[in-house]
Structure formats: structure tokens, C-alpha cells
Amino acid sequence: MKKMTNRLIPAILAAILVLVSATTGVAAHHGTYKEPKTGILLVTFGTSDPGAQAAFDNIDRKVKAAWPDIPVYWAYTSRIIRHKLAKQGKHLDSPAMALARMAEEQFTHVAVQSLHTIAGSEYHDLTKMVGGFKSMGVFNRIVLGYPLLATQADMEKTVDALLGMIPGERDKQEAVVFMGHGTHHPANAFYPALMFQAQQQDPLVFIGGVEGYPEIGEIRSWLKGKQVKTAWLIPFMSVAGDHAKNDMAGDEADSWKSILAGAGIECHTVMKGTAEVDAFVNIWLSHLEEVLHHFD
Ligand code: CO
Fold this sequence. Notes:
The chain has helices at residues 2-24, 53-66, 79-87, 95-104, 121-136, 152-165, 190-199, 216-225, 242-248, 256-262, 278-293, and strands spanning 38-44, 72-76, 109-114, 141-145, 175-180, 205-209, 230-235, 266-269. By secondary structure, the protein is α/β, with parallel strands linked by helices. It has a 4-stranded parallel sheet with strand order 2-1-3-4, sandwiched between helices. A 4-stranded parallel sheet has the order 6-5-7-8, with helices on both faces.
């Protein structure tokens, strides 16, 4: 009982301090009062492919149209891509650099929106970074938005968006294979879960990963088992960059196109990233909207 009371004292003192400063309007930081200033930080893995950049420009436009009064910043989590771009004179921030910049520019409320597909290791690193800035107390509020796939509602909207990407020329006997990134992270389970739900609507839709289950070997045997002769290959990544061009549609022997061709399955490819498709962008925007609601 006594122990409990002792532990409560600092918390009570802190609460009183907060109440006093809130009611008197006295700010604790050397008398400087910060005008409320909200900013958005969009965080993606990044791309060094100039063509794929169009996908991010699309999101940038949509976010600015939805929140015209809120400044929008970008950060790339991939160090390799940032370094590659820096050599071309394009300087992209890491999340830490962008948040430091926003602190310097006197933002008080920061909505960090992940543009990742799943909450894998990139997202978890971002969670730690946001937590670090939160504990430093440089912003009044800093909140991180979910990636594309977080809730069941996201899964349902994503299934619809995926089915909407399938070209009209596709015959119902032809398979559709989406190439996700895939990961060793436990969040990889989102891909087969999504495939299960997509197959309730279209049994010949498959969702695989370059680096996670189901991989192309499994998909190839499923397609053979269903006597599929033709497949449509579509990226399930925010941009149709390096993985889409080489691992999916490339002419090398280990590309998905070549592997399926080796099993007698003719492939058509669609080169489009999910960030170019409004149905996906709207899901990310809905998560950003939830974050901004915290600041109301
Ligand atoms: Co990769």
C-alpha cells in the first residue's frame, strides 16, 4: 500500500504540473510558446526508378488535395536508394532526418503515414523512430498511421482493388498472379490471408512474394494442378520498380515470367504500382485521416 502511494506521488506531481501549465498558458520550454502547426510525413521504402516515381507523385497530389492547408514531407526508409539518388543530386530524407527537420521548423503535430503494404520490419523500424521522437517530447503529438493492410476492412478493400487491376482482356480460364514483396517478418501472413479472401471471389487469383510464402515454386505447382495455360502477372507493390521489372517480368531464367514459361504457362505482364491506383491510395489516405482525427 505504502509502496503504491510512493509510486503515485511523481505521477500526481506531473499531472498537477501539466494542469497548471495548461490553465495558466505557461509553456515549460523557456517561456517559448509554439503556435500549433500540423504537418504530414509520408514514409515509403523509396524508389530510384524515375518511371516509378510517378506513383509517389500521385499520392503526393492526392494528399495535398485532401489536406490543402497541411504541409507534406517525404522520407525514404531505404538507405541504399537514398544514397543512389544522392549521387544523382536528389536528396531524400530518412524518417529521422525528416522528423528532425520538422522539429526545427516548429511543427507541433506530426502525422506520420506509412506507405508500406504490410506492417513488416520497415514499419516496425518506423514505429521505433516515431516512439523515439515521442519520448523526446519535441512535438506535442506525433502519431503513426497504419500501412495498407492492417484491419479486416483494409483486406476487403484491397481484394476489391486487386481485382480491379486485372485487365478486361483476361479470360476467366486464365490465372492472375500478383507479386508481393514478401518478408521473413511474421507479417508475411497477410499475403496468404489476402489470397484466401481474393480466391473466394476469383479462384484463379494468386498472391505470392519475392521473399516470402507463397513463392513462385508453390504458385507454379498450383497453376499446373489447375491446368492453367495463361497467367497475368501484376505487381502488388507500391511502385512497379526493380522487382516488377526484373524479378517479375524480366527475361532472366529466374524471373516469374521465365519460371512459368518453363512450365508451359504463357504470361502477360501489367506494369503498374499500387500507389498509381486510386482504390489503394484511398486506403492509405483513410489511415492518414484517422491519424489527423487524433489532433482535433
Ligand atoms: Co526488395
